[in-house]
Amino acid sequence: MGWWLQVIGMILALLGFLISPAENIFQSGKVFITNLFLGNLSQTHSGSGDNVAGDKIVNVTRVPFSQKQSIKTLPPGLGGIDYLNLDNVAILKHYFPSSSAKVTLLLDVVPTTLPDEHNKNSILEGAQYYNQSSETKYVFDKEKNNRHEIFVGGRNFIVSLLKIHELNIPNVPGALEYEFGISER
């Protein structure tokens, strides 16, 4: 009883196939028609991505990375941050020696964070250790080495030390902020 619905479906599908513009069907892959005699008309597109039939135009435009970031030598609970993020491609981590005249950064270290300790005389937050012997070091200072080009992940980042200034936070002596401009070439 339902065989005539299959025949009408096949005819409509075949007409749609024949009327479709060739560039939509064949642009990005091949179309195979199988099981025509069994009443099953199936189209299989082979290709890659979401644009197999060529009916969508995909434009990918990447804007070069540009951002200001700061390193603050404070405990995490007071808003401290000890790294720069190079557009999720790499990390520059604060390291020593650093002072009010210069700062050292390590490229892509993976630190192990120690648990915070609180007792009645002191609080220890954000303590970390890591192996820095195999990492690349960049030393920035106010005078001559305030800019470095860093090639990582197939991209070229320009990292510039803009200024170093002391933070006035009660009970936190020697807290510094290193301000950086990061751009991509």
Structural description of this entry:
By secondary structure, the protein is mostly beta strands. The protein is 12% helix and 38% strand. The chain is built from two helices and 14 strands. The strands form five sheets. It has a four-stranded antiparallel sheet, with no helix packed on it. The longest helix is centred in the first third of the chain and has 17 residues, at 3-19.
Short structural description:
With 185 residues, this protein is mainly beta. It is 12% helix and 38% strand.
Give the tags.
2 domains, 4-stranded antiparallel β-sheet, mainly beta, elongated, 185 residues, 38% strand, single chain, 2 helices, 12% helix
Per-chain topology:
Layout: H1 3-19, H2 22-26, E1 31-34, E2 42-45, E3 66-72, E4 83-86, E5 90-95, E6 102-107, E7 112-113, E8 117-118, E9 123-124, E10 128-129, E11 137-141, E12 147-152, E13 155-166, E14 176-184
Antiparallel strand pairs: 1-2, 3-14, 4-5, 5-6, 6-11, 7-10, 8-9, 12-13, 13-14
Number of domains: 2
Radius of gyration: 30 Å
Count of separate DSSP helical elements: 2
Residue-averaged pLDDT: 77
Would you count the extended β strands for me? Answer: 14
State the helical fraction. Answer: 10-25%
Taking the sheet with the most strands, its summary is: 4 strands, antiparallel
What is the overall shape? Answer: elongated
Oligomeric nature of the chains: single chain
Strand order of the largest sheet: 3-14-13-12
Low-confidence runs: 23-45
- Strand composition percent: 35-45%
Series of secondary-structure elements, N-terminal to C-terminal: HHEEEEEEEEEEEEEE
Please report the distance between the alpha carbons of the first and last residues. 69 Å
Query: Helices and strands: which structural class?
Result: mainly beta
